[in-house]
Amino acid sequence: IALGQALRRAVPEGQLRLHYQPLVDRAGACIGYEALVRWQHPERGLLAPGAFIALAEATGLIDEIGLWVLEQACSQLAAWRDVPAFAPLSVAVNVSAAQLRHPEVVEQIAAVLRRSGAPAARLTLELTESMLQQDVEDGVRKLRALRALGIGLALDDFGTGYSSLSYLKRLPLTTVKIDRSFIRHIDADGQDEAIARAIVGLATTLGLRVVAEGVETQAQFERVAALGCEAFQGYLFGRPQPLADVAA
Length: 248
Ligand code: G
Ligand code: G
Ligand code: MN
Ligand code: NA
Hints:
Elements: H1 2-10, E1 16-24, E2 30-41, E3 45-47, H2 53-59, H3 62-80, E4 90-94, H4 97-101, H5 105-116, E5 123-127, H6 136-148, E6 152-158, H7 164-170, E7 175-178, H8 180-183, H9 190-205, E8 209-212, H10 218-226, E9 231-233, H11 243-247
Parallel strand pairs: 2-4, 4-5, 5-6, 6-7, 7-8, 8-9
Antiparallel strand pairs: 1-2, 1-9, 2-3
Bound molecules: guanosine-5'-monophosphate (G) (2 copies), manganese (II) ion and sodium ion (NA).
Domain EAL: 1-248
Organism: Leptothrix discophora
Protein name: EAL domain-containing protein
């Protein structure tokens, strides 16, 4: 209750922050970032999304927060656009079910891109399959429109839901992110390795890019790279942090 009222003031009072976690290629070179929101609460300190995203969704504040996140990410992309060393970097942003249900979401995102001057091809939206369960047709139609703008679409936490495979077919995806639960024991558990191998094979055959999430050790990195995975994210390469720290 009190938190909800405080959250209402978070965007207008400039209390949200974006942390950026690097995404790397097979050589370990940074190819982009995932943007993760934080709330600098006036009394409670820096809060992770687990402490306020569900509340934002329940109160309708998620639309405003989601647009703020998108604006920040797009202005970063626009700033990088003319710097050769940074221009190839991508930024991925997480999108909630409630945001996708907003009737104007496609127009809102298109407007943020236009205003910022960010190259659409450098922006990826991260989706989860659970977000589509309410009205799949409406969601698919909007995702097609976003994809038509040139925006990348990643299926996050892949392999953990019920209908992962049918979504691979129905959604206009560019990327799947192997859930970190399959990576955690990949160097010790043959079943996890088999699942990760199957995901990489399937996604690659479908022309999708695969990102392995939650890579924490060199052994996990080598094992998942040996399966043919092309992009990696996890504490081995960097934790989410403010961009000033990331750049240094
Ligand atoms: O950064 P952290 O590991 O605490 O993130 C936890 C979860 O919060 C992740 O699953 C991520 O999808 C979600 N999350 C992070 N940033 C955003 C955001 O800007 N919007 C939405 N909707 N979810 C986010
Ligand atoms: O659901 P989503 O994939 O968006 O969640 C991203 C979350 O995963 C962030 O909160 C981030 O802090 C966390 N994360 C990123 N890399 C690692 C990792 O290597 N290990 C663990 N345990 N969590 C990670
Ligand atoms: Mn994500
Ligand atoms: Na994930």
